[in-house]
Amino acid sequence: MMYGFLSRAPLYFFPALLIALEEIIRSASKIEGSVVVGVSMAAASVGMLIPLTSPKPIDPRTVPIDVLEQVSRAHGTIINEKDKAFIGIVWVFFMVFICVWAFFLTLSFGINIPDLYIKLNTKSITWSSLFVFLISVILTEIKEAL
Fold it and tell me: What pLDDT is recorded for position 129?
C-alpha cells in the first residue's frame, strides 16, 4: 500500500517543486512578477502532464480470469497498449515542455541569446505559453478518452 503512494509522490509534488524553483530564481534576480506570467503558465502546463504518465486502471471484468491470476502471481499490472504508447508520447512532451519552461524563464530575465538571435517580449512569451498550455489540455482530454 505504501509503495503505491511512494511511486506516485513525484507526480503530486513536481508542480510545487517547479513553483518553488521559479520563486527562488525570481527572488534572487529581483524580477517583477508580471514578467513571468508566461513562465508560470509553462510551469502549469508541465504540471498538467505529470498525472498523464500513470496508466489508467483496466476493468478486471474485461480480462480473462487466468490472465488475472498470472498477473497477480507475478505482482504485475495490466496496461492497455494504447495507454502504454500514449504514456511514452506524454513523456516526450514532458521533456520538451521542461525545456520550453527553462527557455521562457531565461528569456524573462531579459537575457539575450545572441547565437539564436532570439528576442521575445513578455506578450509573445505569454502567448507561446498559452499554446503550450492548450497542448497539455488536449493531451489530458485524449487520455480521458482512452
Answer: 78
Q: Where are the domains of the chain?
A: 31-145
Alpha helices in 50-113 (DSSP H): 65-73, 81-108
Residue stretches of the chain with pLDDT short of 50: 1, 117
Please tell me the pTM assigned to this model.
0.69
Summarised one tens digit per residue, pLDDT across range 56-75 is 888 888 888 888 888 888 88
**Residue 124 to residue 118: CA distance in whole angstroms:** 12
Identify which of 49, 50, 38, 44 has the alpha carbon closest to the alpha carbon of residue 19. Answer: 44
User: In a 3-state reduction of DSSP, which class is residue 37?
Assistant: helix
Cβ-count burial 6-44 (b if 16+ within 10 Å, e if not): eeeeeeeebeeebeeebeebbeeeebeeebbbbbbbbbb
Give me the amino acid identity at 24. Answer: I
Q: Which residue has the cell 502549469?
A: 44
Q: Positive or negative CA dihedral for 46, 47, 53, 57?
A: negative
Extract the C-alpha cell encoding 91.
513523456
Q: How many CA atoms lie within 13 A of 45 on its CB side?
A: 32
